[in-house]
Each structure stands twice: as structure tokens, then as C-alpha cells.
């Protein structure tokens, strides 16, 4: 880097800057700037040709003015001229201007690219570096298209200088991250790996970053980097503290490079070659040993750098999870940090130990630190450290210490920060259920939870306790007794009333023998809470009352009196009114037998995995959508419950606007009301009472999809004039996240497709054979009306002939806070590869807004699952043995490898899952037929997880080559 | 992986920003305000890592200047934490202990373009980088 010399300074610029600084007011500043702009303009326009120095000076001034926040609309050409100067300082200013004020003016781009090309070919390392930095800083797709092919050549050329190689590696990395498709893989990849052997540590550092990124996509191509990385690491770790000169940081040899190498190794399973592995283990041991040695410097920089390497080493040990000795040593090391005076170290130790706890080799070792961790939970002053401690307690919990941990967490909950209460509640609920030896302990724990932090107990939690109590008759009496006692508290949380209402309605009879909890006492206790509760709880209590009439006939008169009261029968809330009317009639019309049948005890719930777990996973991103990547949260989070779990995963969102769509607000089936209401339909089938409770959105939706419906998709498809299709030329390109948003919907059919500050778009869809119907819900999140609202569907390319999508118009105005719905009828004519685009335009407060998304219609939606026996499967598999019919992909797991989740995803994808076909039970095998109007495509698939390597191999065979490849691509992104 | 790099003063004004992932300009202001708010509200007893939305902020304070690096969850926190210090040392070395860079404004501005090792380029919103060491 050329040093900045004083003589190089531009006096005119310095004067201008100090003038600006001395300006007393904003107006004075603007005046001074306008004067300067006029001056520069006249100089640029003047007849006299400017010399390089003046040009540089004026371009600098323009840049400064731009950075002050003013628009610059001239000077670009002069800046481009500077690029071809032979003086470093002039060229540099030219590049700086270009990097800061990129202009997509096509004329200039061509000139700029030309200048860059010349500099890249100049063999002057300083110029080459400037050009490479410019490409990387701009990093646009155009730059990528122009130079992505040249840079690998410069990177591996034998005669490139070190600084150039370093810049080329980082430049390539930047281009690859921006547009991976533009960077061609080729013979140069092998030579990039060999840069790990380079003499120059800067080159090695840049190369490691590049390889770490590239190898994620093609692990096999870069496999040779393992041994090179190990030997490089070994040389660094064993070097004396001064060997590496510039790259020694406070007596620690190349700490950042070591961290990067260790990170690179975490992209792969442990080395297979015994010699390499031996050498690596030796390295890891050396790092762990060094941590115990006295520090070479008292400076905090020394220990920070050393610890950075140590933590990365521990991460690698945990990643391998195969060296018990190292795992236990890592655990002991972290144990020391748990009591360190530096908060940062305590935080990191807790975080790392959390992953150690899940290894079978170190789980016991982690458990020995339980007292320290509990102490941290109680005494740490930093909430994020406390949260890590709570996470660690959760991770180290097993049957032996569950009672201790749960009681500590409950105690912590009383004083816990509001931000993390809900998560703690979920964790306690899960641990209590998972490690419950006796269920009375479980019931106590959950009721304690509700008492301590009722506001944070989500519906999943109290649904779950009801499910468990309903399913286990040994705990029902205890639950009824405990809940009865809990309800006697003068102020108890509404969730307690819900649980109490449900349990007493079902099992109140079990404690009715005790005069202290006789039926009238139970009823009056519940009813004393009634008026303080929300509508949902009151509805639940009304169901409890009708159940009481069945359980305890002696309460019938009292309860009928309550139901008959004007406040119920004429309640403004239609749900309450309906329940009161129906229950009252039911209790007076139906005979005891009918009552007993209708109001029978709830049958056991089907056993299934706790929905609380799914909720906890969802909690992981505590904020709303992130500003950086909206909607990029774990796509599996919603899938787990997807269409499988009948419990609605009702999220108790604090702000009603967060769930405009009501997608997640189906009524809880766990309350007795739902089944009771259904039965009522039979009882009064010819009676006057019309159960107008209204089918849930789901039911309406499905019933509309029935083929014989009057408005069948086909009828609509026959409409010759597709309404308002603006054609692809009128709409903008899809937003950058469009592909990712699309991926979220490959395995599921409903959810939030898109959300920003203004608008939320929800989707619900159903597919049958080659037909589908999709509901789009557009929610206006603002308080201002959207005008000229027009969502349209566009078919890019020849999609028109492959997929027919019929849309209905929607209202052109969407009021603030309101939601409109659009129905799409879809017919798959033949196989297609690209999804249709959805373009949404509207005016918000006068500004036109437009947005293009990919409509979540992918080929797999038209999958029809096919069951077949193992023999048939293999026979067909063999029939599809042409190389083109098969598509295979080997890829790294992006999500935790959970067999249940994988199953759910494959089913969501649309294929049938065939058991007992693959000899390896870990593998998944599926079959199905893609239904299109023109043809049917048979499809066989096989997914082989490798838990140790955290990789999958996916193979698809279909009768049509593009289909194999396309489905393989789609599905591979889901794991 | 580093998502963005910020230098912000105690008044909450951004002095330098560099984004490694695309964020719309109008969202940046909001993001930066929130980020600096969460850094300012921390005491010395608290750790230097903040979980923010779905990434982590790692910050260090030098007099009135905060340097904040946002990373994803696979990044080594300690390495980034010390990287910030290394960065500051390099700046200090390069500009020979500058307190007020009034006269040297240009040096900061222009040299950061060739500041190869750390890839920091300009995103100055207003005035100059004010480093007080």
C-alpha cells in the first residue's frame, strides 16, 4: 500500500473542506456547495483541457459533496477518464468515484469495463489490485458477467504477484456470493486448493475464505483441501511465536488464519487418511495444551486471539464428535471459562458447552458443571449470558437431574426478563413432559408455570397438558384436585381458568365426592371467574357447564338459569350467544341418554410428537422478520406442523396485526365445544336451531374444492379471455428473495408468502390431480388505504402452454388493516420448470409500489402419491435406468437431520413414502405420478441421509429427463 | 460470515458502514438506529455479543466511537471481537494517531479505498471518520 504523503495533498480540496466545516448553518453550507458545483461545472465545460491533477481534485470535491448527502449529476465522464491515467493517485481517485457512485448508464459501464480490462491486463500489480477492488466493491451482476471468467485465470497464474492473488481470491469470493451462477467451475479449482500451500500468508488467508465458500456447493471437488489445510494448520500451531512475523498477533501465530482453517475443516467429516487424521488430532491437542500454559503476554489481545483459536478448535472437536478424549478435554477447558472474570468468555463457554451436551461422549462431563451453570442463571448480570445458561441447562437435562433443573428454571422464571420468558416457559414444559417419571409432578410443574408466568404460557403448552391428562387416567383425579385448588387463589391467570374449566368439565366427577369440592362448589368457583374472562375462555366455560349438566344432574337448574340469562342469550358475541342457545336447548330437549352420548368424556388424543417442540424451534428467531433477510427463517419451522398435526399451532401473537390472515387462528379442537357442536347438528337435524357457527376457514376452503362444486376449476378455465394479463414485459424482475420464498412452499401449501412493512401476502392452496386452487390473501398492514391495487399473474416464456392460471379480479382499494382475497384456478397442462410470477402493484400514500414474486406453484404440487410393493418398486427402478432419466445430487444438510421432519417434508413434497423397500431403514424411498393434462410422469425417489457426514444423497428417476433434474433440484433445497 | 460493518458515534450517527449483503438504503437507516440503540444500552458488565434478530452483533467501544460487526451464527465471536481491535490498530498505524481528521479527511477517505486487507470502503453518510484512540 502506498503511504499517504503530505506533498500529495490537494490544497484546494483541503480549503473547500475546511470552508464547509466552518459553515455556521445548513443554508451557508448549501450555498458554499452550490458555488463549488458551479465552479467545477465551468471547469469541466471550459475550453481548456484540464490536467490530471485538476481533474483529480475536482472529482474529489464532487465525491466529498456526494458523501455529504447531495446529488451529483455530472463528473462521471471525468472520473472515467482518470481510470486511464498512469498516475496511481489519479487512477485511485477515479476508481473510488466509480465504486461509490456506480451508475448503470450503459455508455459509461462499457468505458469502465474497458478501463478495468486494461488494468487487469497491465501486469502492473498496483493497477491490477485497484481494478480487482473496484470489481469487488461494485460487485454487480454486470461486473460479474464481464469479469467472472478472467479472475480465476489471474488467481492461479504462476506470475501473479502475491498481493494480486490475494485480491483476486477475495474478488472472486465476492462475485461468487453475489451471483454464484456466473463463476465457472473448472480446472482452476484444483489449483485454488493448492494456494493453501502458498508462501504468502495473505494469499493463504484469502484462499481459505474462497475455498470455504466454494466447497459448500461442491464438497467433492475440493476434498483435497483437507490434507493441505491440516498440514498448514499444523505448521502454524507448532511454529514459534515469532516465526510468522507480520502474521503474529501479540505472540499468537496467525490467529485468524488458524480460525479459518479450522472452520474449513468443519465443512467435512473427519479425515479418512489415518496419517492426516493423526496429524490433525495432534494439532488440536497442541491448541488445548497451549490453553493451559502460562500466557506469553499479559495483554488482553494475546489471550483474546488465543481463545479465538481455542473456541474454533473446540467447535471442530464437537463437529467431529468422534474423539471422546478431546471432547472431555474441551469440556474441562470450557468449565474453567465458566468461572472466568471476563463476561465474554463465560458467554462463549456456555454457548459452546451447550453443543457439547448433546454429544454422548461429553454429556456426563458437561453435567458435572450443573451447579456453576445454575449459579450463573441466578447471578449473571447480563441477560444474554443468563439466557445461554438457561439454554445449557436445557441441553444438559436428563432423567437424573430433571427435577433439579426444572425447579431452578421455574424459580428463575419469577424474575426472568420479559424477553425470554416465553422461551423458558416452553423449555420447562418440554423438559417436564420429556422427563416426567410421575405425571403428578408434570401436572404440578405446568400449573406452576401458568401461575408464575401465565401470560407467557402459549396455547401449545396448555393444550398439551390437557392432552396428557386426557390420555392418562392415572393422573386425572390428581389433576382435577390440583386445578381445583389452584383456582381458589383470589387472582388466577386466565390460562389457569381454561385448564381448570376443561379438566373439571371432563373429570370434575373424580373429586365430587369431597364436600369441599362438591359439584355446586366447583360450578360456583368456575362461574366466579366467568365475567373476568375473554370471549374464548367464556366459550370454553359454557362447554364446561353443559358437561356439568351431564356429570352432575343436580346442577342442571342452576346452569340452565345461567344460560338463560339475558347476558348469555342475547350476548353481543355471536359465538357465546350461539353456545348459550344451543346448550340451553340441548339440556332441555335431549333425554339423559342422548346427553350422556353427546357429552361423553373426550376420547384419548392420538399420540404424536409434542407441538411445543415445533413452537420452540420457531422461537429461535425471536424478532419479527429480519431486516437482512426477510422470510429466510428456517423453512422447516412451519413444515413440521404443516398438514400433519391436527392441533392448530396457534401462536399467541401479542399484536393482532401480526396475523392479519388468520391463517393460524383455527379454533382449538381440544376444547369440547367443537365436537359437541358437530353432534348438535345431528341431534337437531330437523330442528329450528341452525348451527351457524360457520365452518372454519379450512372447511370452507376444502368444500369449495370438491370437484362437483358449481364453480368448478374447469368451468373457469374454459373462459377464453384471461383477465388483465399485462405480459412479462410490463412487470419488474422478481425480488431477490423470491426464490427462497418459493422454496419455503415446495413442501407445504399454506403460510405467509411475503411480508414487508406495508403488505402481507398469505397463501392457501389445494391441488388435486392436475388441477389446483389457490387463495391469496393480501393484508394491508398500514392504516392507509392502498389504491389501484392490482395483483396479476404472469407466465414468463412458454409457460403459457404448460400451465393455465385463471385469476379473479380483486377490489382496487384495500383499506388500512383490511385484507382482500384472490382466488386462482390452476391447471397443469404439461410439465413445467419455472413457476408463474405474481406481480402486485398499488399506490400507497401517493407512491406507486410494485412487487414481483414467484407464485408457489411447482411441478411437485401435481404429484399423486403411489403405493407399491418393494418388488414393483425395484422393477420400475430398473426400467428407468437410462442415464438421462436419473438425476442425483449429493449435498450437505442445511437443517438438523431429523427422520420425522424428513418424512413430513417428503410427504409434503407429494410422493408416497414406501416402507420396507430400502434394505437400509435410515433411507427414504418414495413414489408418485406427476399429473398433467397432456401426460403423466412416473416418479421414483430415494433419499439417503448420512448422519455422520451431515450429508444427503438424493436420487430421482422419472420417465422424463428434465422432470428428474427439476424435481431433484427442488427437493434438494428442502433439507 | 460478516453481514455488515458499522462505525457509529455515541450520538448514534453512522460514520462508516459497509454491507456485505444487499440491504435497501431506506432500511439501513432503521437498522443502524436499532443496532446502535442496542449497543448504547449495554453496560461494561455485559458481554460484547448481542443476539439481534437472526444474527449476532459484536461490538467494541473506543472512546465515543462504537465499531459494530454483524455476523451469522457460524462465525467465531472472539475472532471477530479481536479483529475489530486489529482493524483499529491498523487504522491507528496508518493515520498515525489522529484525533480530529479535519485536515486529513482526504487521507481517510481515499486510502480506505485501497485498504485491501479488510475490504472496508466508503459508505460515509456525512462528514468524516472520527477516530479517537
Automatic annotation (TrEMBL), chain A:
GO molecular function: clathrin adaptor activity; low-density lipoprotein particle receptor binding; protein kinase binding
Membrane topology: Peripheral membrane protein
Gene3D superfamilies named among the record's database cross-references: 2.60.40.1230, Leucine-rich Repeat Variant, TATA-Binding Protein
First and last residue of the signal peptide: none
Compartments where found: Cell membrane; Membrane, Coated pit
Chief localization: membrane
GO CC aspect terms: AP-2 adaptor complex; filopodium tip; glutamatergic synapse; postsynaptic endocytic zone; presynapse
UniProt KW keywords: Cell membrane, Coated pit, Endocytosis, Membrane, Protein transport, Transport
Protein family membership: Belongs to the adaptor complexes large subunit family.
Its biological purpose: Component of the adaptor protein complex 2 (AP-2). Adaptor protein complexes function in protein transport via transport vesicles in different membrane traffic pathways. Adaptor protein complexes are vesicle coat components and appear to be involved in cargo selection and vesicle formation. AP-2 is involved in clathrin-dependent endocytosis in which cargo proteins are incorporated into vesicles surrounded by clathrin (clathrin-coated vesicles, CCVs) which are destined for fusion with the early endosome.
The protein's name: AP-2 complex subunit alpha
Organism, as annotated: Jaculus jaculus
The encoding gene: Ap2a1
Automatic annotation (TrEMBL), chain B:
Domain AP complex mu/sigma subunit, chain residue ranges per copy: 1-101
Pfam families per UniProt: Clat_adaptor_s
Keyword Transport: yes
Coiled coil residues, start to end: none
UniProt membrane topology term: Peripheral membrane protein
The organism's place on the tree of life at top rank: Eukaryota
Segments passing through the bilayer: none
GO CC terms of this entry: AP-4 adaptor complex; endomembrane system
This protein's UniProt keywords: Membrane, Protein transport, Transport
Presence of the UniProt keyword Isomerase in the record: no
Location (main, coarse): membrane
BP terms from Gene Ontology: protein transport
Subcellular location(s) of the protein: Endomembrane system
Function according to Swiss-Prot or TrEMBL: Component of the adaptor protein complex 4 (AP-4). Adaptor protein complexes are vesicle coat components involved both in vesicle formation and cargo selection. They control the vesicular transport of proteins in different trafficking pathways. AP-4 forms a non clathrin-associated coat on vesicles departing the trans-Golgi network (TGN) and may be involved in the targeting of proteins from the trans-Golgi network (TGN) to the endosomal-lysosomal system.
Family: Belongs to the adaptor complexes small subunit family.
Record's subunit section: Adaptor protein complex 4 (AP-4) is a heterotetramer composed of two large adaptins (epsilon-type subunit AP4E1 and beta-type subunit AP4B1), a medium adaptin (mu-type subunit AP4M1) and a small adaptin (sigma-type AP4S1).
Protein name according to UniProt: AP-4 complex subunit sigma-1
Gene (UniProt): Ap4s1
